[in-house]
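Continuing the series of single-chain predictions for the mutant panel. This is the parent chain; the variants come on the following pages.
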Amino acid sequence: MTEPTSFEEFWPYYVSQHQNRTCRRLHFAGTTLAGACVAVSPFMPSALLAAPVFGYGLAWVGHFAFEKNKPASWASKQAALWSFQGDLKMWWHMANGTMDAEVERYCGIASGADANGEPKLAAV
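Parent structure:
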């Protein structure tokens, strides 16, 4: 991969690292729970401590157990910032039901699923 110089260039790589639906769902849950922790933190400041545990913890489970790769955020400081932006963009796409189309667009995932309910890779 050529080093991206913008988030727009980073996004296709980010999507390629999130082809597994279970991984994406864990990201969605983690981002939602982390956001909820931040939202309640004015009333319960200790909730801020739980935000990264939910956000990163669930995402890392998704990467190691299901996606079988390392989080994109580990590549560099810039990648970490763009990965956070990517998490939010992916959350939005998932909330709107358009993330599968993004995966198909950038990764060639064909419609349909394998026996585990995961998307099939398109024939090359």
